[in-house]
Amino acid sequence: MRSKIIVSLVLVFSLLMPYGAPLAQEEPNQTQTKDQATDQTMDQAINQTVENVVEERYHTVLEMWEKEGVNDASNFEALIAPSDFIDVDEDDLVPAGESNGYGDSVFYWHNQESLTYEVTVPNDGLYELSFDYYPISKEIVPIEGSILVNGEYPYYESRRIVFPVKWKNAQEDYDVDRFGNEIIPKQVAVPEWTTISAEDASHLQAEPLKFHLEKGKNEITLTNLRGEMLVGNVSVHSPTQLPTYNDYISNFSNESKTDALITHEAEKGYTKNSSYIRPEATIGSSVSPNDPKKLYLNTLGGESWAESGQRVNWTIDVEEAGLYQVTFKILQNKATGGTVFRNLYVNGEIPFEEATHIRFEHSKKWKNVTLANEDGDALLVYLDKGENEISLQADASPLARTINEINDINREMQEFALTIKKLTGGEADQAREWNISEYIPDVPETLTGWADRLQKESEYVEKLNGSTDSQDIASLNLAVQKLRTLSKEPDKVPNRLTELTEGSSSVSQLLGNLLLELPKQPLLIDRIYVHGTDDIPDAKVGFWKGLWFNVKRFFSSFTSNNYAVSNDVDEDTIEIWVNRPRQYVELTQNMADRLFTPETGIKVKFSLMPDEGKLILASAANSQPDVAIGVSSWLPYELAMRGAVVDLHQFDDFEPYTKQFSPGAFLSLMVGDSVYALPETQDFFVQFYRRDILDSLNIPVPDNWDEVVAILPELQRFGMNYFSPLAGDAAFKSFQTTAPYIFQFDGELYSENGMTTAISEESALKAIQFMSDLNTIYSMPLQVPNFYNHFRYSTLPIGISSFNTYVQLTAAAPEIAGSWDIAPYPGVVQEDGSVERWATGAGTSAMIFEGTKDKEKAWEFLKWWMSTETQAEFASTIQTLYGPAYMWNTANIEAFKMLPLPEKHKEVILEQWEYLMEVPKHPAAYMVEREISNIWNKIVFDGENTRAAVDDSVIAINREFQRKLEEFGYMKNGKMVKPYQIPTIEQVESWAGDEDEAK
């Protein structure tokens, strides 16, 4: 208790220091002047710290170099062989005979090792760095490294350099599913030697990154972050300059323009640098090929080809060398209505300046876009006889200045809001007036300045788009309007911070959404025409042809069922309902047709589940499927209590089969010793932390709750905090956020016989008290609508979150890639020094219905579906085809170990899964969940005594326990008829037995 009081006093003192006394509308006195001086000193400390947290962005550093007169180096190139790397370990050098055709010894770059080389340059200036590399990694996780120049990161972007892997379809012709629809083939990596100049990983820079090297000797270090590859020669050279079109075409003055017309279907004969750029089944009479009934993969790209830097390469055979026009038949239907851009490569190189930033304006109809200059005159490219490679690369660099400006303004607004909170003590009392302009006199100018800067960007984006019909422009204009409105009444800003930085419709939120949408560059391509004449097919078919196609499609819709639920399933076919999107169902059906049915002879049919909530009704109406997968973990228990699902424990091989899952995952799927579903996917709660920020502030990553409390004063001193999942819930706090505290403090939710609740026992009381203290004493956030955004913007650089946050950060936060990490959930230190980290982690489940045609066949399917081999293949395939956002968090532990995730992250997640404890189900569990939430609200908001709040809730809970247990036959007239057995982890672990027994 004494240590807790001391920590609390330190925390209160640290909070008072940066914020000062709240300033109401009154004349400043001497004390307030001292507080203001203290605030100014603290402001300087905060600003200095923030600047030192991470390096400046590349565009800022480049501008600084230009102002200092540092120019591009000219006429220089130095080549360094792997054998000349500094302190190279002989074990890391691969001999020429094993270099995959490089012809010289190469460096094996992996396992977070570094390679260092020296270069002597004749002049101080800006240089580019290039690398010959051969990717060994064949996983979707990119190969990444970081670059140090003379021991320092020159700018933030040098912390993450990506080395792309080339991908292609495993087969050229598309297979079809059981309905005759074409399916996306497996993707395979194409390892080959490639040369790349170090580039911004987010590809917002139009050119490769430049590095400032001083005259004389310089040391460059490339450190492995993840992935593995062979590194050949590295080079330091002058920045590359593209020729103009006139200079380019002058080299081919003797070449003639051909009369050929070569038509290439975009979905055929291509490679790409992202495995998940994929063909699409586009329905319409204007695309080729098409069918009114079947789905053909007849176009390429769309939303899967929207990330800047993604590149597609088509191999096109040319019968006659010469000059050609290049035309793309495209549909550009970006959701926000803006223009997208592409860079054109011919045989691996951009031929001239005008082949960069090619505009594809928004259009809801198919159209032909020919490579042309600003006047609309076609630009010709030279192609050799035979095979040529035509490539398009998504390019968001024209929007870089707007993205950078929005980033800067968003950061400035957060700092401004922090200053306001320091002056007001964080209060937002609408009945209280503030005289903020007396202490920050330039508030109107600050707000107007941001509005002016955003107005310029709105005009710039409008010029890029060629019109004002864009949601991006509308969002910018709305942000401008809000800022100008706020600037008119500066003293009301403290009470209107929700309009500036904190609300769901605030300026900060508008700009945050823009940062996600502006870089997206989606483009759908049907055909590529390489031609010498202007006569190419129209992009759209005629009216009557289009009408006839739609008529045929309308009538075919009555006979096409595809993956819809139907009543005509064969008696010898197992029907499986899937509670997932169509692409998951298609892949699962294809895998089962290819692997499961040939091996077992059991036919299966998958259907899209209309609504998992209707499974109870379907069971009552005897129209249920044989198996359901992808269902929420709460549903099997509800169905089991109604006798609707099969107890899997009846199968002879069930117990040894459970060994591949976390024991705690079964607790919510059990009634007594009966198990009514298998865990299919599994969530995880871990600590996410910004490594760059914590390192800069010298804050350690906490391992337990005592250490979390210890770092709070330092975080809060700089306007930051720690996120707990409690803040992610609204008024109702679910078991997912409250139960971990109960479990970690060795508390229980139910009595041993299941007749009453156990939350009034001492251990549970301690947990509830601590859970409340986090907000009442330690000032952790009460409510955070979106931890992901706050984590990105550094206001919450550390906190506990789930698998969903992991996916978001991996797939949609490229600006902080390489700067964040994960650690186990903080726990409670035990007497022996160990840390109890118990946390929930329910995902989805798979179950068999009592009305199944054949229990044994259904069980065989479940075993196959949740086997290590099937889950590993499904996880790899779905992510390879559809991108990092389609991460599959399988509950099969061995399969999870094989997922294409960083090894360090998998180790942390697997360690946390050892402490997975899902909340056991009980007929009245909902009442315990609700009352624990009520207790927290009473303590935190009403200041009620913990014991009193718990005692009141226990009465209500136990009354509901009696009612529900009588309903299900466990009690009668208030007396226990039979105990309600609460499942335990020890009970589940006993099924698999010891290691020796299992063998």
Automatic annotation (TrEMBL):
The lineage of its organism: Bacteria, Bacillati, Bacillota, Bacilli, Bacillales. The keyword Disulfide bond does not apply. It comes from the Bacteria. PANTHER family: ARABINOSE-BINDING PROTEIN-RELATED, EXTRACELLULAR SOLUTE-BINDING PROTEIN FAMILY 1. Pfam families: SBP_bac_1. Residues 1-24 form the signal peptide. This is Extracellular solute-binding protein. Keywords: Signal. It comes from Lederbergia graminis.
